């Protein structure tokens, strides 16, 4: 199965084995065994749902420490549009971007600007007749991974364009190297992320050197630094590059609204995304041409590494959107400006980790056994066995990772049977031995 890097990790010390997380995981990637949670790496899509629900903060997302910026001579920050919603609306976008320079960056390139480039490329793609529709956005790496592990038949529908984060890093590096005559290897590009899935997507590409991002810092980790710098800004620089269409990507529906089609569907929240992907798989959304699917409720503003409540952040972002709209922005200019190739690097591979066996005949046999075991389980989905459902326990048993007696009802039945057998045994004791014992 290969190795998997995951931003989402477990702090075993903090885990109390409460099982709260197992039912929220969209890919049934968590089991609780011996009173500790365990993540099945191949299944985890880094959606961060378990981080949100753990009452003991035992699930955490690993991102880069701020110090990583010091490993490069020229430091460029690429902030996610969701960053703007984290601060009070009295701070303009230029104010926030200037504060980013104060905390240690030489230059800023807005991911919102790159989002406009991706929108422009997607509009062109939509007009092509040889693409499989509905096209599914590739902007959310958790959704892309979900499709890889659970809905491989929909891989063809994924928009094969780089995400705004990768486009921003690529364009920033190219432009700065050329305009400032700096060697590309001296330029470090750092993404300020609202989610764990983007950390994973960058790190997973390090192995083949296909990411242009040199470090991923979480909004949570850098928030206080920016907040204290906002008060230190004396001259607000004019650093804004993006228009409202790019900033709008932070909200669910923002990407779709830039596509000049009414035949789109925007869905947010990983469990809602699953419902919609099932509809697509069953050919029930033939009238839809584009699907924007985001793992977090509310879109990236609701990412697990943000600091502000998603609805508060939405209200704050609206001020920035209104300001950008008032300024006016001609997004379509980008179509002339950027003819660069932003096609996705590498293939989106199928990762059939939910399959019982790669051999179809063996998989069918195992499925039969699984159904038989499942029928014998109580069907309460209580989670006491450490699996998210009775069916998941049946699957674990078939895979050789659990026993029937992990189910407390089955265990009780077994104990009862043993008690009856012992009583029967006692009744059968030879009289001489019986006396000895008495
Ligand atoms: S929610 Fe999951 S990770 Fe958190 S304490 Fe409970 S079992 Fe452990
Ligand atoms: S990050 Fe998402 S997929 Fe991974 S273990 Fe947590 S809930 Fe499951």
Features:
438 residues; alpha/beta; Alpha-Beta Plaits; 3-methyladenine DNA Glycosylase II, Chain A, domain 3; three-stranded parallel beta sheet; 41% helix; elongated; binds iron/sulfur cluster
Describe this structure as you would to a colleague.
The structure is a single chain. By secondary structure, the chain is α/β, with parallel strands linked by helices. It folds into three domains: 54 residues, Alpha-Beta Plaits (2-Layer Sandwich), CATH 3.30.70.20; 272 residues, no CATH class; 73 residues, Electron transport complex subunit B, putative Fe-S cluster (3-methyladenine DNA Glycosylase II, Chain A, domain 3, Orthogonal Bundle), CATH 1.10.15. 41% of the residues lie in helices and 10% in strands. The chain contains 16 helices and eleven strands. The strands form four sheets. The protein has a four-stranded parallel beta sheet, sandwiched between helices. Helix 3 packs across helix 5. The longest helix has 20 residues. 43% of the residues are buried. The model has no long low-confidence stretch (mean pLDDT 92).
Helix content: 40-55%
Find the count of extended strands (DSSP E, 2+ residues): 11
Bound molecules: iron/sulfur cluster
Number of domains: 3
The ordered H/E elements are EEEHEEHEHEHHEHEHHHEHEHHHHHH
Query: What value does the average pLDDT take?
Result: 92
Report the major sheet: 4 strands, parallel
Distance between the termini: 60 Å
| Share of β-strand residues | 5-15%
Number of helices: 16
């Amino acid at each position: 199965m290969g190795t998997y890097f995951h931003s989402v990790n477990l702090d075993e010390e903090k885990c109390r084995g409460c099982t709260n997380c197992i039912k929220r995981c969209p890919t049934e990637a968590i089991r609780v065994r011996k009173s500790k949670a365990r993540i099945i790496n191949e299944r985890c899509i880094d959606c961060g749902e378990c981080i949100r629900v753990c009452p003991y903060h035992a699930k955490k997302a690993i991102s880069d420490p701020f110090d990583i910026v010091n490993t490069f001579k020229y430091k460029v920050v690429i902030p996610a549009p969701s960053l703007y919603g984290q601060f009070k609306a009295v701070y303009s976008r230029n104010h926030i971007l200037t504060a980013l320079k104060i905390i240690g960056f030489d230059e800023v390139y807005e991911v919102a600007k790159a989002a406009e480039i991706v929108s422009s490329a997607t509009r062109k793609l939509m007009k092509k007749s040889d693409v499989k529709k509905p096209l599914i956005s590739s902007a959310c790496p958790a959704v892309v991974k979900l499709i890889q592990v659970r809905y491989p038949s929909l891989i063809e529908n994924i928009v094969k364009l780089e995400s705004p984060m990768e486009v921003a890093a690529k364009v920033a590096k190219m432009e700065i190297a050329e305009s400032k005559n700096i060697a590309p290897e001296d330029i470090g590009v750092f993404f300020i992320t609202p989610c764990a899935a983007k950390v994973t997507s960058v790190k997973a590409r390090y192995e083949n050197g296909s990411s242009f991002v040199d470090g991923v810092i979480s909004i949570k980790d850098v928030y206080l630094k920016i907040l204290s710098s906002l008060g230190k800004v004396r001259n607000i620089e004019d650093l804004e590059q993006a228009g409202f269409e790019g900033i709008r990507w932070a909200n669910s529906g923002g990407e779709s609204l830039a596509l000049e089609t009414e035949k789109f569907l925007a869905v947010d929240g990983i469990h809602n995304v699953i419902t919609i992907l099932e509809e697509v798989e069953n050919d029930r959304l033939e009238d839809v041409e584009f699907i924007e699917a985001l793992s977090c409720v509310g879109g990236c503003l609701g990412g697990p590494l943000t600091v502000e409540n998603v609805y508060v952040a939405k209200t704050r972002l609206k001020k920035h959107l209104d300001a950008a709209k008032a300024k006016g922005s001609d997004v379509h200019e980008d179509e002339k400006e950027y003819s660069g190739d932003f096609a996705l690097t590498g293939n989106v591979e199928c990762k059939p980790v939910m399959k019982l066996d790669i051999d179809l005949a063996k998989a069918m046999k195992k499925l039969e056994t699984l159904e038989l075991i499942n029928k014998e389980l109580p069907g309460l989905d209580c989670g006491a066995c450490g699996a998210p459902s009775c069916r998941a326990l049946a699957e674990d048993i078939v895979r050789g990772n659990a026993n029937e007696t992990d189910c407390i009802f089955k265990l009780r039945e077994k104990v009862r049977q043993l008690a009856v057998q012992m009583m029967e045994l006692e009744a059968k004791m030879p009289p001489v031995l019986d006396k000895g014992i008495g």
